[in-house]
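Weekly modeling sync, notes
Attendees: S.R. (lead), two postdocs, one rotation student

Agenda item 3: backlog of single-chain predictions. S.R. asked that every request posted to the team notebook include the full sequence so nobody has to chase files. The rotation student volunteered to paste the first one in as an example of the format we agreed on. Action items at the bottom.

Example entry:
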Amino acid sequence: MNAQSAKFAIGQVVRHRVYPFRGVIFDVDPTFQNTEEYWLSIPENIRPHKDQPFYHLLAENDESSYVAYVSEQNLLPDDTDQPVGHPQAAMLFESFRAGQYKLRPRISH
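Predicted structure, as returned to the notebook:
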């Protein structure tokens, strides 16, 4: 499986299937790329398989903003058409329209 087969796109707002949080995708790994310690910290009854895309999210819930790493099987499209309130969103994205953020141009030399 590769990143081109990912179901969700960078800049898309999604929500978690089990836990009450939502976020905007800022990166995608084609398969699980975190540590074994992280993998084992996921409750076994909801632990996803590693051979699927995993998404890096600027996430938020009712209490805080944070970065989350979530399997594709545990994400759903967010249908609120509302932006994410994560304070780092403005650093990575330049605009928000119809549930989708547009990435800022990369600066390189």
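Discussion: group reviewed the output briefly. DSSP finds two helices and seven strands in the chain.
Action items: rotation student to repeat for the remaining queue; S.R. to check formatting next week.
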